[in-house]
Write a structure and sequence with these properties.
This protein is mainly beta. Helix content is 13%, strand content 55%. It contains three helices and ten strands. A hairpin with a 5-residue loop joins strand 9 and strand 10.
Length: 195
């Protein structure tokens, strides 16, 4: 019993001195809000519509996330798993290099997506706990895109099945986003809300 109590005290002490990225890693899931961006492709270019707050799957004890990048290109769902890395106590980065075979519509033309590469780099900071009604939980870490296009972009390649499988590529950049995560700290429901 005493060893259990000591373990809990050590765990709490480590959380008190942990940076926001460590606390983000300790939490379940996250909230991701793409606010703006742009894309260029063989089929044209344009602005990326804001997605609004989106629940992102993230296991406890990991920085890895599952994100849907289809909305970045104005198409149907393209879920990807991004590997997370802690760069410092306040900065994290997610990368993806994933093959797939998903057919979507871009500007009314069918595209078979075969490969997605990308990177997101974000700075994290502690915030007063805010309530996310979609996930029914509180978040105490906010993250925002950092380092510009070099650290925040996606590249998609594939083929156009209706055009003799002609090659297709698209790039999303100028990404502005904010997200929330961390340990579910219970606060009065009247506190600040996401959305």
């Amino acid at each position: 019993m005493r060893s259990c109590f000591i373990f809990v005290l050590l765990l709490l002490a480590s959380l008190v001195h942990a940076g926001p990225v460590s606390i983000f890693r300790s939490g379940l899931n996250a909230d991701f809000n793409l606010q703006s961006g742009s894309y260029t492709s063989a089929l044209g270019s344009g602005s990326i519509n804001p997605t609004g707050p989106t629940l992102v799957m993230k296991p406890v004890g990991s920085l890895d996330i599952t994100l849907d990048v289809g909305s970045f290109f104005g198409s149907q769902s393209i879920p990807i798993t991004m590997h997370g890395t802690q760069l410092s106590a306040t900065r994290m980065q997610w990368t993806v290099d994933q093959s797939m075979n998903v057919t979507v519509s871009v500007n009314g033309i069918r595209v078979t997506v075969q490969h997605v590469t990308g990177v997101l780099t974000a700075d994290a900071a502690f915030i007063a706990p805010i309530h996310d009604p979609a996930a029914d939980r509180f978040y105490d870490v906010m993250f925002m895109g950092a380092t510009g296009n070099a650290g925040n972009n996606f590249h998609v390649t594939g083929v156009l099945p209706d055009f003799f499988n002609a090659a297709f590529s698209a790039t999303a950049q100028d990404l502005v986003y904010v997200g929330f995560g961390g340990i579910n700290r219970f606060e009065p429901i009247l506190g600040p809300h996401i959305g």
